[in-house]
């Protein structure tokens, strides 16, 4: 409860003391009428990150897309993404993560628990991650994530997320860089104010990218000699 109260106080302070440019961006986002076409909602030129949003038929909340160029290698990214038990170190508001089943070298099932804003129950999710490795004619690696909410029994008071869908494409570039394009959609389940869900949809993908970039620079991933379960090719190693 103390943690929740501190989180609420911090969130309120951040909202009240936001810089004029950020506040204006948020207000403009609320004013704009999203359509089923991608609209730019954040453009970080310094970090080369662009975020988009759109509304799709049959979905309660908006979808998101993020395009970025990261200063890292595909190999280092793969090592971070396969370290499921350490998602708590970088994935948005994650306080528990663990691998619960592995069907093959490229198919994984992961359980995660996410902190929710004050006044809302925390969420948990079961996701299936499928990796499509690079090949001679396909230099990029893709990761597809799908929620499988019925795989495990519900764990009240946690609310099971009903959708956590992402498609992520990693393309190696020269000079140890990777282009990363992510499209996705979250539905937290239960009763959530639309503004709160949209706030997360807008900010979480951007925050995850920054944290992912930071993790790929850690020695344990950047210089690891542990074998990976499938071949990885950086730009100068493409077959």
UniProtKB/TrEMBL annotation:
It comes from Agitococcus lubricus. Keywords: Signal. This is START domain-containing protein. Residues 38-221 form the START domain. One of its GO terms (cellular component) is cytoplasm. The keyword Phosphoprotein does not apply. Residues 1-23 form the signal peptide. One of its GO terms (molecular function) is lipid binding.
């Amino acid at each position: 409860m103390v943690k929740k109260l501190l989180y609420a106080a911090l969130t309120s302070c951040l909202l009240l003391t936001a810089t004029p440019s950020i506040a204006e961006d948020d207000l403009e986002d609320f004013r704009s009428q999203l359509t089923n076409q991608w609209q730019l909602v954040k453009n970080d030129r310094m970090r080369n990150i662009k975020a988009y949003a759109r509304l799709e038929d049959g979905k309660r909340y908006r979808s998101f897309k993020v395009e970025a160029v990261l200063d890292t290698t595909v190999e280092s990214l793969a090592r971070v993404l396969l370290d499921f038990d350490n998602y708590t170190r970088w994935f948005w508001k994650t306080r528990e993560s663990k691998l619960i089943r592995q069907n093959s070298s490229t198919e994984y099932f992961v359980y995660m628990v996410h902190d929710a804003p004050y006044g809302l129950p925390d969420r948990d999710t079961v996701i299936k991650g499928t990796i499509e490795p690079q090949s001679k004619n396909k230099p990029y690696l893709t990761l597809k994530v799908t929620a499988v909410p019925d795989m495990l029994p519900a764990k009240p008071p946690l609310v099971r997320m009903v959708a956590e869908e992402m498609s992520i494409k990693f393309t190696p570039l020269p000079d140890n860089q990777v282009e990363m394009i992510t499209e996705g959609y979250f539905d937290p389940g239960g009763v959530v104010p639309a503004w709160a869900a949209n706030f997360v949809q807008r900010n979480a993908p951007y925050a995850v990218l920054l944290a992912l970039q930071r993790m790929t620079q850690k020695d344990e991933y950047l210089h690891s000699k542990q074998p990976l379960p499938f071949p990885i090719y950086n730009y100068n190693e493409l077959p």
